[in-house]
């Protein structure tokens, strides 16, 4: 029987209030250095659901299947966007280029993720809609891929659909893992499992891919348009802005993955699903990979407040050196040949 994601989890971060440890966040963290496992927390070989952190891999698979987008719209295809007007306009542009309207979207209706945008949405009397939901860029790209490939767009969410089979193959190619579980993600699309270490390997492959490959195009879009991947002030956007050349993506349930242009990479999952420790753990992991910047330090600082004043902070745990055997790096993204 497969081990629970809780098995072997270790402390990722501690929450300190007025000098006292108030709570802890457990989880798993993997890193890749020169194609081999680097410092780790917990068991990086644990199988889990990477949630929206998988979107750059999905976007690369869609490009391989015939999707025709680049620049900010490609970043939007890999995004968990804030639902700002320009995000929603970008989703409509992806659909229009494929000859489709917003009625074709089959993701979960929701309000914009950005609090101010959600308040304006409510004030206008608008109901939750698919285009406002943070995954609508991915769903628009999935529909556009179906049109480009000549596949039925109406059933694009079916795990047996040619689009989803192509994505699954590419997840396996870049992570080096067998997809052992298929679930329904929060947005309604199929969600494929991998290991924490496999997610780090996938991001390493994307970050080092050649500029003319699908993976390299996804990396360039994320690097150049971080506000389209998240939104102003979002932790993933702040971290991307703080580290030039970084490729990164957040996911629900405390998931995050990132990689540098030379292939140094990390992936993590917080066991309790909390987002609070993620910027702290990511910033500390990037520092251990050799990144130094005041902007990264600022993005990775999460204060603990008492009566509106800072009385403590979230602190990262120190990882261990890898105890497991070296895992070969994923094949070069340019040469996978995955559909």
Automatic annotation (TrEMBL):
Pfam families attached to this UniProt entry: Asparaginase_II
Where is this chain compositionally biased, Low complexity type? 323-339
Annotated region (Disordered) at: 318-339
Enzymatic class: hydrolase
Indicate whether Hydrolase appears among the record's keywords.
yes
Signal peptide residue numbers: none
EC numbers, comma separated: 3.5.1.1
Q: Is the ATP-binding keyword given for this protein?
A: no
- One GO molecular-function annotation for this sequence? asparaginase activity
Keyword tags: Hydrolase
Extract the InterPro entries matched here: Asparaginase_II
Q: What is the official name of this protein in its record? A: Asparaginase
Q: Which organism is it from?
A: Pseudonocardia lutea
